[in-house]
Amino acid sequence: MKNMATGRIAAAAALSACLAAGGVTMAANSTQHTASPATRAVAAESRQDSGLARAFDAVDRNTAWQLTGKLKLNFATYHTEGMVRAGGHIFLSAVQIIEPTQKYPTPQGGYDRTPGRGIGHVFVMDTEGHLQRDIVLGEGDMYHPGGIDSDGSSVWVPVAQYRPNSSSIIYRIDLKTLDVHKEFEVKDHIGGIVRDAVTGHLVGNNWGSRHFYEWNEQGRQTADWDNSEHFIDYQDCQYVPDRKMLCGGVTNLPQTSAAGGAGAVYELGGMALIDLRSHRVLHEVPFQQWSTAGHVVTRNPLKLAADGDKITMWAAPDNGEEGNGTEILTYQASVHPAG
Q: How confident is the model at residue 262 (pLDDT cuts 50, 70, 90)?
């Protein structure tokens, strides 16, 4: 394995190359999001899958992923949630817990636990992981940022109560100015979001990703559907042309006492490609690589990119107080896409 300095340089170089290739910094000056020329161009995409969709379709449980870099973050990151590389920056969402939630003996007011207290953060970094800005998001009991994504001109961030069947605010951060816009509220816990480049609509998943919602840019719900799969809970997703979303996540499975002691769990990681037209899972695979702190790598922030037969993954599974602190891990694998 490479030493830390070499790994940090490799991770920063890979992130920088991806940003240079794909970053767009068009500004939006009102609370109504106006599609940039780049976004409008994507909206005109033909019904043909992108290189990432084709590359991911070739990933299976035997794909050989190689750890090629570690980028250690040298500031307090708390509990990491979602990540985006766009506009020359790395964006990392995280929740700072001040008072943990507590389960009620029986549900109260439709909730299974207390609201707790916390602070929602979106950390803005350069491509070498140096903190440039700490954007604090949330209101009242809504302090839990989830998985995030960028449409080329903005970063979209859901901030929810830290309990199921609750409420959320959908925020938009302008990539050029880093100005924050509160777009609309939702009567459920939204744990992740993407923006469909063709329709302009937003798609979010709730607590445990058991249910999906679709909204227009004014926040009017246009569709919703149940997740037909039960393999993993999706934690962080990204839009993939043509009209797909690629999600990573985890499920905690109980172990026998002999395997790990009383109350021990096993983290099963995985990724799934979902069709935004049919709402079906098109392809899903497990992922069992482990972080410094012993977490499965797909546990929280996760993004992928493809270049020909090379697929790259960036992940940040460890919290700030765990292991070696939060590290952005870079993995690469060679695949053989069809066609």
A: confident
